[in-house]
Amino acid sequence: MIDFRTWARRAADWSADHFANIRDKPVRAQVMPGDIARQIPTNPPEHAQDMAAIFDDFEKIIVPGMTHWQHPRFFAYFPANASPPSVVAEFLTASLAAQCMLWQTSPAATELETVTMDWLRQAIGLPEGFCGVIQDSASSATLCAVLTMRERALDWQGNSAGLANHSQLRIYCSAHGHSSIDKAVRIAGIGEDNLVKISSDGPDQAADTGALATAIQNDLDAGLIPAGIIALTGSTSTGASDDISAICDVAERFGLYVHVVAAWAGSAMICPEFRHMFAGAERADSITFNPHKWLGVNFDCSAHLVRSPQDLTRTLAIQPEFLKTGGRDGIIDYSEWSVPLGRRFRALKLWFVLRAYGLEGLRTMIRNHVAWSQELADEINAHENFELTTQPVLSLFSFRYLPANTQDADALNERLLQAINDDGRIYLTQTRHNDQYVIRFQSGQFQATRDDVQFAWKVIQEIARSLES
């Protein structure tokens, strides 16, 4: 047996030191494939090992192989943030070690989830009538939405009779849709060939709703079954955002389910001045966004808000006798709202964060990130050797390096990005826009400062000059 009190304190001290000194570490792991595995024995230990040795190996082997998502100069992807109050709550959650699949397996977990999800509903400006559940990721929430679309379109016969005896179902989304949408239609048995991707137009890169309506009508004329539309608020790649209200107009015309994916951008809706991006969301059937991205809640914590929980549970719920709660009316069993039966106590960390910072503290953090990114985008756009390839959407934009007489811009920008990430002081990622290789920048790390954002520009220019020489 280990001395739990001693090692729990050691872990807490290590975590505090890690947060305090993280700027001294390279952002992306500076290792090669196989470097970590070679340091770990190939066979499991037969006998107990000393915790001091285990902890020592954690520091020497594991930490150098970690990319530091909590680094203030992490400007890649979009951060999976972990604020200190959330880390404390996660420690308590691990200690409680509850399996929160039913109300009776931990009433506090269920009821706290109900309340905190309603707090989020209010925070992002949605009207009463939406109910929420915490999923592990936006990918899972989107899968749940696609399954619900499928069942509604098949008059609730898909789960029982299967898909073989029906016409082919169709799902519609923007050409900028996340790969999780493709995966959801695969898993739901609809098939990627039946995910209709609609071209975009305008500065917001929004799906063309005229083309959307035409595609739906053509499918109906062909004897296919339109099932639902997935709208975007802030694509992962470049921040593409759909006109949700216009999409809901089309959906109502054809009687289709609408699901809104706002994985990273949805958190910004706690700021009223950004809610123009969400206009019409109150008419959608379901919405998902990730507090584990921009609200400082440890991964995993994805908010899934629905107008009709009955449709969701009719799609997903299975109640064998051993999972029934007898003698209690009006309870919620959240395992019926998600694909897995087992559920972690995710609401505790969300509760801690919302209380520790308050909505105004979180709004200040988001507003700063947006302002600092806009400032950097303006500086990049003013430089003769760089150009913006997409304008800032909240805190996300893309750019490329384009000095005079560049022969192969894609190759040059790929070299620049690789050199930046090998350097280790900041971390950026790439995407393709208008068939060009471009570099993404986003400011969203919970502890980032304006100096960190400005430091990124210094590093980008410094390494670009080194390529020139």
Describe what this molecule looks like in 3D.
Helices cover 42% and strands 14% of the residues. By secondary structure, it is of the alpha/beta class. Strands 1-9-8-7-6-2-3 form a seven-stranded mixed sheet, with helices on both faces. α5 packs across α11. The chain is globular and about 60 Å long.
Quickly give the structural class: alpha/beta
Q: Give the CA-based shape.
A: globular
Distance between the termini: 59 Å
Strand elements, count:
13
Supply the CATH class of one domain: Alpha Beta
CATH architecture heading of one domain: 3-Layer(aba) Sandwich
Q: In what range is the share of β-strand residues?
A: 5-15%
CATH topology of one domain: Aspartate Aminotransferase, domain 2
Q: In CATH, what is the homologous superfamily of one domain?
A: Type I PLP-dependent aspartate aminotransferase-like (Major domain)
User: SSE order in H/E notation?
Assistant: HHHHEHHEHEEEHEHEEHEHHEEHEEH
Largest sheet: 7 strands, mixed
Q: Regions with pLDDT < 50 over 5+ consecutive residues? A: none
| Portion in helices | 40-55%
